[in-house]
Amino acid sequence: MQYDVIVIGAGPAGLALTRSLADARLRVALLDKQPLDALVAPPVDGRDIALTHLSRKLLRRLGAWERIPARDISPLREARVLDGDSPYTLAFDNAGHAEEPLGYLVANHLIRKALFEVVDPLDRVDMIGGVEASAVASDASRATVQLSDGRQLSADLLVGADTRFSETRRRMGIAAEMNDFGRVAIVCRMEHEQPHNNVAWECFHYGRTLAILPMPGNASSVVITVPADRAGEIMDLDEAAFNADIERRFELRLGRMCLAGQRYAYPLVAVHAKRFVARRFALVGDAAVGMHPVTAHGFNLGLSGADILARQVHEAVRKGQDIGSAGVLAPYQERHMGATRPLFHGTNGVVGLFTNDRFPATLLRKAVLHLSNHLPPVKWAIRHKLTSKGGLPEFPLPPRLPGLKRLLP
Ligand SMILES: Cc1cc2nc3c(=O)[nH]c(=O)nc-3n(C[C@H](O)[C@H](O)[C@H](O)COP(=O)(O)OP(=O)(O)OC[C@H]3O[C@@H](n4cnc5c(N)ncnc54)[C@H](O)[C@@H]3O)c2cc1C
Are the C-beta atoms of residues 15 and 305 closer than 8 Å to each other? Predict the structure, then answer.
């Protein structure tokens, strides 16, 4: 079974890449260990994804954005950060661009469903569900994948999109930096009395953090991160006690709150592959960079990485080049590594600082919040990162900072 490209992992990153590759009239095999039924109608997994404007643009280009019902998309108009038990708030808003939100919140299973729907009808794509890649290899002329059902596939290019714990990455000899935070994120939907006004909150309380993200209606996505040894007791709390605990910790800002659905637990491990490419092989999505969710970069980076790789492949097809050659893959690695490495280390630094409850870190936490609030370029850079649709900055650069343009991603 011969293909141009084999993609292992039909998560949102693998699906997005496959959709883009199909435009180059390539024959693609997309395989996942989950059965096709689960990929057609992905179950709720508790993750609500904050998407940047660039991600919305990319999803639109793939035809997936329109497949997400408008009633399930929640615009994010303001973000506020609290530290410890202080009422002092670091706030980001859309800086007078009232019609332009900072970003959009969408449930992960709806993103997966929409992407599946744009890939499924493509006649040059074979979607193979319910199988695992039991062995992978590549040589100068082909990449091969041995499937768990005994079949063997080969292609010019193999792509690993099989989660941050990617087996394919390991089998292709790519090492990864792993940062196990020893913490767990517990996520759930909650309904509440008061409107959220499309404001997101990140509360770095001592001992645990609490994020409240505005979802459609009077509902929010709640993300609690705690040391792993405390997660069990929060998962096991009965509903009334859980509701009361969140209300108290959020100081009834949204009035009475009520769990809607179940709680999901995700161990927090951030991963950055040392390389994104090998012989006839590339990594995309979390398999390349699995971020801590606090800065909401994970899928946004997965989507932009898939876009960069797809562009490289398209160009190679146009020029009649070998799509699995080092010359085609190297620029992808260079660009995506350059974009992700500073964010990976920056995010881990933020997590390290804001989960360290000892003096002097607590003092530094407060200083960082105050400084960020009073340094317009910091806020501008963060806002720009969220709202930019790619290409050159769309906001005028702040005056008196001629060097800033070079520093911005
Ligand atoms: C609590 C939480 C909140 C988050 N919030 C945000 C956010 O606000 N913004 C944001 O941008 N990102 C966020 N993320 C990150 C985002 O969810 C991930 O970056 C994204 O889901 C990664 O997509 P992926 O396709 O790379 O991998 P995955 O979604 O992990 O999908 C991988 C696929 O590979 C398949 N697979 C695995 N192993 C094999 C194998 N051996 N053979 C075949 N198939 C295999 C799996 O079945 C799966 O379908 C969050 C994550 C969490 C946990």
Answer: no
Instruction: Kindly give the distance from the C-alpha atom of residue 10 to the centroid of ligand 1, in angstroms, as a whole number.
Output: 9
Residue type, 189: R
Q: Which two tokens stand for residue 45?
A: 């997994």
Pairing mode of beta strands 152-160, 2-8: parallel
Q: How far is the CA of 380 from the centre of ligand 1 (A)?
A: 29
- Backbone φ and ψ for 195, nearest 5 degrees, come out as -70, 150
pTM for the structure as a whole: 0.92
Whole-angstrom CA distances from 274 to 72, 170, 190, 211, 341 are: 37, 11, 38, 30, 10
Convert the pLDDT of each residue in 131-165 to its tens digit: 999 999 999 999 999 999 999 999 999 999 999 99
- The 10s digit of each residue's pLDDT in 324-378 is 999 999 999 999 999 999 889 888 877 777 777 776 777 777 777 677 767 666 6
Task: Check if the beta carbon of residue 301 is closer than 8 Å to that of residue 291.
Answer: yes
**Region for 143 from its dihedrals, namely left if φ exceeds 0, alpha if ψ lies in -120 to 50, beta otherwise:** beta
Check if 187 has its Cβ closer than 6 Å to any atom of ligand 1. yes
